[in-house]
């Protein structure tokens, strides 16, 4: 009996722990900057409890530069006192159900006081006709107290391992560990060499780089120069893979940590670098410029300088995860989405929906600051937006966004990829083009895909695949070598299965890769080459003979029945049974996944082309729709056309998103009679409106009758500075003939920014994202008189116009202090007032 009770107890404990872990990862996490590490136990506990109460799943601690006036409270990184407050953080986070990740350093990139010159980042320099080593002298950017110093040499495993010993004698002694350690995007500027580079190059490439120095230094694009530079980049990629990522990952796993890594920005193959990581992480920086009606974009954001997010870049992280069976793919999310104090919840949701369609399922907000309870408004802030902390205007309604993300991620994380096409990434063709980054190297960044990804045939093909509704992942040379083949001739790796291997038009290909393609084709894998077979081997060593051998292998390869060289890739894919979804051609973005026998689609309308209509899905079966905003499930209307196609009726307006689950069946549910999709207006609520200011800054007592809706900033001079909540009340009459037993839709029109609604004294809900619509349940409306009350919360930008002029001393941070979206000194006093409140029109519509 005792043994039974013990086993029952252990099972219960394990079940609770697993449930807690699932809840943590399905909820969004946040970057949590510790400014100067001037933290204390009481404020740490308070903020962790706030985060848990708001619906966050965890925090990622980044020690960063400090705050002026708090120097005596700075805690040096990894000192005994720092370790004590960090241990308290992990312990308290566990208590309230939060996870904790930690940057393996301060600021970025890795480096610090223990990095000696022989360990530091290096670049090549030609002296007396020979390549020699020179320090870049780069220092850790945004370093925290105790973290300043030289940046480590990412290409040298000995240097990286020596850097990590600092954590061996400190962090590993703690009783409770963080979940994961983290590495930010590669920003080691100008580094293109290492102490052992020349020896490693000769060992890996088969010749002395100095023997081909004129070709290496060539800027005219000679063939020899191209081949040598391919070898140079391949060696950098190998050393970054082995010297940093593999070394760091191995160290972390030996100490019981997972790893989160932003591989982008590096001069290596992103797929291989992401693949070594437990949680690959991409980045969503800036605004994607979605043509969603009513969606605002910050006009001051400099696209030419900073670029915009792109799903093709995001897919490098998710592809690596799918190919290696990693369940989580994260993203640094909404960095500089708009200027400080200007970001709305309605702007955040489409960016996150785009990440979901690219295979991301573990959102990290960028971000929140540790800020003492006693600190005056707006508290301590990081130099870059978006600000999600308790002093933000987002905070009162933050749980609604978090709940939406949790509902989405819980489904996305427990499903497996369902992508038919595996697209080879021909990085050697990229390396054959002139490099545009410092040090003459190709840095594969997520910000400016137009500089390296989109110009390649690979990038153009990826855009076409997206536009035509094909589901796909990328594969590298190394990952291709690890694939297996099932009895149906499908490629298998990690948690993914693929029907076709697609090789974009490319000139260069390693002969080992072509040999692997031949091996797979002989096992029945269907291989499609776009336009032509590659013509040359990659690299300089014995280039001609290797290219001739490769061309001969290519001729033999074309004789295989499973191999095609196609001038019309999409026609060929269709003939091979590869599924394309009509969703894309209709203007919708989606991701298709599998849960047991159910096909799951996450669908979002990030454009302005689609409203509603019949759409064919590649999966036939019984379809239901789940709305993560409302947590409601409903049956979808389906029909079979005269041509024998099964269609579903989708109603998804710009800005909306939902899941469709299709359970496989011999025949889909069919409805022979279409019902009306009438959304006509039954009432236009023109007012008048009784309005008054409620809680906010500055305190205002104004009450006024609005004959028609307008921005409250026009009501008085002081109203143009108000940030907080305004209260609206209006009454309206409905005809006695109205069928109040039906459900209806309340359309609030343009809301700046969040509206909490009560109808006839009962809560109706909160509208926080486009379309700003709420469902009116049956019997909630009354024939005759009805009373509508709406509390609207605006941005904090208007108040900062006043506060920044009256209290400029709040900007007291070291390093970069705080800047605007163009990295200029922050000055809110010159801003124009942001429209605020209900702008309408407000209508009651028939519900679809």
Structure description:
The structure is a single chain. This protein is α/β, with parallel strands linked by helices. The chain folds into five domains: 1-103 and 278-416, no CATH class; 107-262, no CATH class; 421-575; 582-664, Immunoglobulin-like (Sandwich), CATH 2.60.40; 681-795 and 834-846, Galactose-binding domain-like (Jelly Rolls). Helix content is 28%, strand content 25%. The protein is built from 20 helices and 41 strands. The strands form ten sheets. It has an eight-stranded parallel barrel, surrounded by six helices. The chain has a six-stranded antiparallel sheet with strand order 13-22-23-29-25-26. Helix 16 packs parallel to helix 17 (543-558). It is globular and about 90 Å long. The N and C termini lie far apart (59 Å). GO terms for molecular function: hydrolase activity. Residues 1-19 form the signal peptide. Keywords: Hydrolase, Signal. InterPro entries: Galactose-bd-like_sf, Ulvan_degrading_GH. Pfam families: Glyco_hydro_106.
């Amino acid at each position: 009996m005792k043994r039974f009770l013990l086993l029952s107890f252990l099972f219960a404990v394990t079940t609770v722990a697993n449930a807690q872990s699932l809840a943590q990862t399905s909820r969004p996490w946040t970057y949590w900057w510790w400014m100067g590490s001037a933290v204390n136990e009481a404020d740490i506990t308070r903020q962790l409890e706030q985060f848990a109460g708001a619906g966050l799943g965890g925090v990622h601690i980044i020690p960063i530069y400090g705050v002026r006036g708090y120097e005596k409270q700075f805690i040096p990184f990894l000192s005994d006192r720092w370790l004590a407050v960090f241990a308290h953080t992990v312990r308290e986070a566990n208590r309230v159900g939060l996870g904790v990740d930690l940057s393996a350093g301060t600021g970025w990139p890795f480096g610090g006081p223990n990095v000696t010159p022989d360990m530091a980042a290096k670049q090549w320099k030609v002296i007396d006709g020979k390549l020699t080593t020179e320090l870049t002298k780069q220092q850790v950017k945004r370093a925290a107290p105790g973290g300043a110093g030289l940046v480590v040499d990412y290409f040298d495993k000995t240097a990286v391992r020596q850097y990590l010993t600092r954590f061996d004698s400190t962090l590993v002694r703690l009783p409770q560990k963080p979940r994961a350690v983290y590495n930010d995007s590669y920003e080691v500027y100008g580094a293109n060499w290492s102490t052992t580079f020349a020896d490693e190059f000769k060992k890996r490439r088969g010749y002395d780089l100095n023997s081909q120095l004129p070709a290496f230094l060539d800027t005219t694009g000679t063939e020899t120069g191209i081949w040598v530079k391919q070898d140079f980049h391949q060696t950098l990629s190998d050393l970054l893979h082995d010297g940093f990522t593999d070394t760091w990952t191995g160290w972390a796993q030996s100490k019981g940590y997972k790893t989160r890594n932003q591989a982008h920005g590096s001069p290596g193959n992103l797929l291989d670098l992401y693949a070594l990581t437990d949680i690959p992480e991409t980045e969503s920086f800036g605004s994607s410029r979605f043509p969603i009606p009513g969606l605002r974009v910050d006009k001051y954001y400099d696209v030419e300088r900073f670029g915009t997010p792109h799903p093709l870049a995001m897919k490098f992280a998710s592809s690596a995860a799918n190919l290696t069976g990693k369940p989580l793919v994260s993203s640094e999310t909404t960095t500089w989405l708009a200027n400080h104090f200007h970001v709305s919840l309605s702007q955040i949701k489409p960016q996150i929906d785009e990440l979901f369609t690219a295979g991301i399922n573990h959102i990290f907000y960028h971000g929140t600051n540790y800020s003492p309870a006693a600190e005056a408004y707006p508290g301590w802030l990081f130099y870059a937006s978006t600000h999600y902390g308790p002093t933000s205007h987002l905070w009162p309604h933050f749980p609604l966004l978090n709940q939406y993300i949790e509902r989405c991620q819980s489904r996305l994380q427990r499903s497996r990829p369902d992508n038919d096409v595996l697209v080879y990434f021909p990085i050697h063709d990229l390396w054959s083009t002139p490099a545009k980054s410092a040090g003459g190297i190709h840095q594969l960044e997520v910000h400016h895909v137009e500089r390296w990804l989109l110009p390649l045939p690979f990038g153009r093909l990826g855009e076409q695949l997206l536009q035509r509704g094909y589901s796909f992942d990328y594969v590298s040379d190394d990952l291709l070598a690890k694939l297996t083949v099932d009895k149906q001739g499908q490629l298998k790796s990690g948690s993914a299965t693929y029907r076709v291997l697609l090789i974009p038009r490319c000139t260069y290909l390693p002969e080992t890769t072509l040999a692997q393609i031949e091996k797979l084709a002989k096992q029945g894998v269907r291989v499609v080459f776009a336009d032509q077979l590659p013509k040359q081997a990659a690299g300089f060593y014995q280039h001609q003979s290797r290219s001739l051998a490769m061309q001969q292998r290519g001729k033999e390869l074309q004789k295989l029945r499973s191999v095609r060289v196609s001038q019309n890739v999409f026609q060929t894919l269709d003939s091979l049974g590869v599924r394309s979804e009509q969703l894309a051609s209709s203007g919708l973005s989606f991701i298709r996944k599998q849960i047991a026998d159910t096909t799951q689609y996450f669908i979002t309308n990030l454009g302005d082309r689609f409203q509603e209509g019949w759409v064919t899905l590649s999966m036939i079966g019984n379809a239901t729709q789940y709305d993560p905003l409302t947590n409601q499930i409903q049956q979808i209307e389906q029909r079979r056309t005269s041509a024998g196609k099964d269609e579903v009726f989708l109603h998804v307006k710009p800005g909306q998103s939902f899941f469709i689950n299709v359970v496989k069946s011999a025949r889909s549910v069919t409805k022979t009679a279409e019902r009306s999709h009438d959304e006509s207006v039954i009432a236009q609520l023109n007012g008048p409106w009784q309005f008054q200011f409620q809680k906010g800054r500055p305190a205002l007592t104004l009450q006024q009758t609005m004959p028609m809706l307008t921005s409250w900033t026009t009501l008085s001079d002081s109203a143009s500075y108000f940030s907080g909540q305004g209260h609206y009340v209006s009454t309206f009459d409905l005809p006695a003939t109205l069928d109040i037993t039906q459900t209806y839709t309340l359309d609030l029109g343009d809301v700046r920014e969040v509206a909490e609604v009560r109808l006839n004294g009962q809560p109706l809900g909160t509208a926080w994202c486009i379309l700003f619509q709420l469902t009116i349940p049956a019997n909630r409306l009354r024939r005759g008189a009805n009373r509508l009350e709406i509390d609207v919360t605006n941005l904090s930008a208007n108040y900062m116009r006043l506060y920044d002029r009256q209290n400029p001393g709040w900007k007291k941070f070291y390093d970069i202090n705080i800047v605007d979206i163009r990295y200029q000194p922050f000055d809110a006093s010159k801003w124009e007032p942001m429209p605020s409140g209900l702008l309408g029109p407000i209508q009651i519509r028939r519900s679809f």
